[in-house]
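Human: Here is a favour to ask of a fellow structure person. Comparing notes only helps if you start from a blank page. I am asking you to supply a protein in sequence and structure-token form. Write it directly below this note and I will take it from there.

Assistant:
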Amino acid sequence: MEIHMSLDRINFRIEDVHVDDFQRFYDSLDIVEKMGFLNVRRDFGKGHSEYKYNLHVGQGDGAVYVAYRHNSENAKLVKERFHVKVEYNPSKHDRYDFKQFWLCMSDFQMFRKSIKSVDIAFDIAVPISNIVAVSTTGKAMNKYQTTMYFGQRSSNAFLRIYDKAKEEGKKDEVKTRIEFTIVFPPETTFQLLQSVSSYDVFEQYIVSVVQYDKLDAELACVLYAINSGFRSLKDFTRRKQEKIKNALLETERINFQAVFDEQKTRLFQDIKSAMCLQL
């Protein structure tokens, strides 16, 4: 079973940026926008849980979100130095189209950077109707049309499973995407990230490829009901839940950790490139 792993989204920080340094970047971006090279939407947050500066650079899936000066931080205590948040999807972002933006960002190249979170995607050529997923930690599945969700968006171990071929408009292709969000502890550098050998988020779910016609009728009906969203694991007794989990383990369970181990070199290179503030 061939599985392709890729970096779908990255959220990183540029640390200890003084207000004067950010203002120079802000002014440079303003000039670039007035020259017609970029479209920038600016929002200014006032809430305690918001950033003061919110910049949405570009439009669509390739856009970049830049935020600065979280309102929960005291300017005097941090000596007017705050982190810059950068978030985007490298797989849908064309650096050449955004070259003026990255030229503005290059002023931060020598600043210390840390990784807040990444979305790692696994693509498999199997119909989504044959993918059954259950949480081993008690998370409920939410479903919208054929897309399955576990956990809260942007939180650690958030899982989304959806029909990627349908999203791409490829009617003659079969591709299901299984997407994990991994949130890292504060101050996680790229070097520290490379030293991590395994991720517990992969063990928080049992995701299996199920051939219903090869199972006994009762189990096939139960798994199909879970996949369809008609029933959740919590609808069954604890004893029945364990039976369902054990049955899934005996099917073709996807070993995400093994795929990660095989393809992590390319993934780490993609993360490093995504955090590079130069063209």
In short: The mean pLDDT is 92. The CA atoms of residues 16 and 82 lie 5 Å apart. The chain is about 25% helix and 30% strand. The longest helix spans residues 256-274.
